[in-house]
Each structure stands twice: as C-alpha cells, then as structure tokens.
Write a structure and sequence with these properties.
About 40% of the residues lie in helices and about 25% in strands. It has 8 helices and 7 strands. The chain starts with a strand and ends with a helix.
C-alpha cells in the first residue's frame, strides 16, 4: 500500500474520525447512490458504529490519503471466504479524481488483511461512474441477481484474480500513478 494511504477499522476510529465519516456519508452526492438516500442522524451513526464491535459478518474501514479522509470500503455478509463489498468516496476524493485509487487501496487492504477469497457486489445500471470504476478494478459482471434488487447487476472478483491481474495491471497502475502525481498533497 502506498504510504500516502492509511486504512483504519471503524471499530478503532476516534470521535473526530467517526464524525468525518458521518459528514461524508450525509453528503448529497454520496447519499444519492446509497441503498437509502436519507440523511443519517448522529444517534443512528453512533448505534451503527457500536454494533460493528459485535458483528463478525461486517468490516468497515475508513481510508485516508495524505491525512485527508477519502472514503469508506466495507465488507458485509462475510461467510465462507466471500463478502459483499461496497464503497463510497468523499468530496475530497471526487474533486481530485482519486476514486479509483481510494477504492483500489480499500480492496487491496481487505484481500491482504482479512484473507477474503471473493468480493462480490451489486452495481446500479444507471451509476456509470461506478460501472467504469468496477471494470477497471477487474470486477466481472455476473448478471442480474435476486440479492441485488431491481435495476442492479451482480459483479465479483476473487483474490487470485485480484493478485494475478488487477493488482499488477500495468495500465491500471500507470493511471493511478498519474492521478497521484497530479495530486501531490
């Protein structure tokens, strides 16, 4: 992982870090792509954060780049080496065109740290930015899935696909390097 990036489990966040996550999650651009687009209250956020300490089926991490909160990567429904992956990125990240880099580091961290064998997810058919990003990261379309909901399709990647292809893909690494050089801070 690049030294510019720092990943921290939600269960270890300071109050300030947790507040930054809540503020980012309530950003209108983030909310519009979430399962529920309503604002999360501070009490709901605290209850959710507390529940993660007792939940062995979910892992949420906060990602920082150069000391700035950049996004969240999560795994849910962890079972038999597979997990439902998800992410969102902060305004800081979107403004600097660093979403690919942030999500790459989140996924890489989850594969390396937690030994997950397969990450799958759902993408909305109208979220063209996420579709392009997921394709760049090597997630393969699996078609519609009952678990994904209407107007969504399932995507997935295995750890071996990640290690052999995505994490070493010269074009992807070059693209991420260019974006990093455009954003030295």
């Amino acid at each position: 992982m690049s030294p510019m990036y720092r990943v921290k489990n939600f269960t270890d966040l300071t109050e300030q870090e947790s507040d930054e996550v809540l503020q980012g999650r309530n950003d209108e651009e983030v909310r519009r792509w979430m399962t529920s687009d309503r604002r999360i209250t501070p009490d709901e956020h605290r209850r959710f954060m507390d529940s993660l300490k007792r939940n062995d089926k979910a892992i949420y991490v906060r990602i920082e780049r150069a000391g700035c909160f950049s996004g969240v990567y999560s795994l849910n429904d962890i079972a038999d080496g597979s997990a439902l992956g998800g992410f969102w990125v902060s305004a800081y990240t979107r403004q600097r065109f660093l979403a690919l880099n942030v999500v790459f580091h989140g996924m890489d961290y989850m594969f390396r740290t937690y030994g997950i064998d397969r990450i799958y997810g759902c993408q909305r058919a109208d979220n063209h930015g996420a579709i392009r990003l997921n394709a760049l990261l090597g997630l393969n379309r699996c078609g519609p899935s009952a678990g994904c909901g209407q107007d969504m399709e399932q995507i997935e990647i295995t750890r071996s696909q990640w290690e052999q292809n995505t994490a070493r893909a010269p074009q992807l690494l070059k693209l991420m390097d260019r974006t990093e050089r455009l954003n030295p801070w």
